[in-house]
Design brief:
Shape: elongated
Largest sheet: 7 strands, mixed
Helix content: 40-55%
CATH topology of the largest domain: Rossmann fold
Strand content: 5-15%
Order of helices and strands: HEHEHEHHHEHEHHEE
Radius of gyration: 27 Å
Number of domains: 2
Distance between the termini: 100 Å
Length: 287
């Protein structure tokens, strides 16, 4: 039976309608698939839910003694820059900014004798992944206001916590105990396949019941340390492949200064070499 022209036109319109609907479905489905495959939702710490952090950096803050006013200023200013991935050209210190790269989980720990005395792992005082810079927002895909809020929360969380710690002084300095406890803590081991770093803000003068750089017969002498600590975990810590860098506070007290020599830095090089960690150049806190 021969179709009328009107029927043929209607059939063509119906066919075009079906094709149009299929095109819309494919477009919407493809867009949804693309957004789903390219989006990376974050957890409460700004870390990727899919892949976790890219690396873990433990910032270890030694609160054994008060820092000088100039040191306080330098610590606060420097961290404000480093947490945003920058180092002042006027300073030009060999800070490894990779410790604070986007996607790195930054954890803030404190040398705390009371916490060390408990048979638990150390919990970070604060921890967040370094978020994307809001200045890198990509068109309609990103909301720059949200990125900026995350970025500001990240920086303020750590600068506020550090500012609080700068007002405290404990007296004891269980530095080596803190390193060992962090190495065994669930929080630091939570992402075992990712690179790990330690950034240490300290005068590096160990002072605890286990060992003291101030005590006669001990001090920053590695041979003394080996004899006293023989058979203990402090001669066999496990920090395989962990990069470590010291932000050193030079003390004003003559007794402290007399201990802060090359022998002190070599003591810690030996300690971390035993742990199979990777040393980076120490940098000085101004003041």
């Amino acid at each position: 039976m021969i179709q009328s022209v009107r029927d043929q036109q209607k059939k063509r319109k119906d066919l075009m309608g079906v094709v149009g609907i299929l095109a819309i479905v494919l477009l919407v489905g493809g867009g949804f698939y693309w957004l789903n495959s390219t989006s990376d939702p974050l957890d409460e710490n700004f870390c990727s839910l899919k892949n976790g952090p890219n690396a873990v950096t433990a910032v270890i803050f030694d609160k054994s003694e008060q820092y000088s006013r100039d040191q306080v200023t330098d610590i606060k200013t420097s961290f404000g820059l480093w947490l945003s991935g920058q180092e002042a050209t006027t300073k030009n210190r060999k800070i490894d900014l990779g410790f604070f790269a986007e996607g790195t989980l930054v954890q803030l720990y404190v040398t705390d004798q009371e916490a060390i005395n408990r048979p638990d792992g150390l919990d970070p005082k604060a921890q967040l992944c370094v978020p994307r810079d809001f200045r890198d927002a990509q068109g309609w895909i990103d909301n720059p206001d949200f990125l900026k809020a995350d970025y500001q929360k990240f920086v303020s969380t750590f600068t506020n916590a550090i500012e609080e710690l700068l007002q405290e002084a404990e007296g004891t300095s269980p530095i080596m105990e803190t390193f060992v406890r962090i190495s065994n803590s669930e929080s630091f081991q939570a992402h075992p396949t990712k690179p790990h770093n330690m950034f240490i803000i300290s005068d590096m003068l160990q002072s605890s019941d286990n060992y003291s750089h101030y005590r006669a017969g001990e001090g920053p002498d590695w041979n003394n340390f080996q004899k006293k600590m023989d058979g203990t975990v402090y001669l066999r810590p496990r920090l395989n492949g962990v990069k470590w860098q010291v932000f050193l506070a030079v003390r004003e007290d003559p007794r402290d200064r007399a201990l802060q020599t090359n022998r002190l830095s070599q003591f810690w090089v030996n300690f971390f070499d035993k742990a199979k960690a990777e040393k980076l150049e120490w940098i000085l806190i101004d003041g």
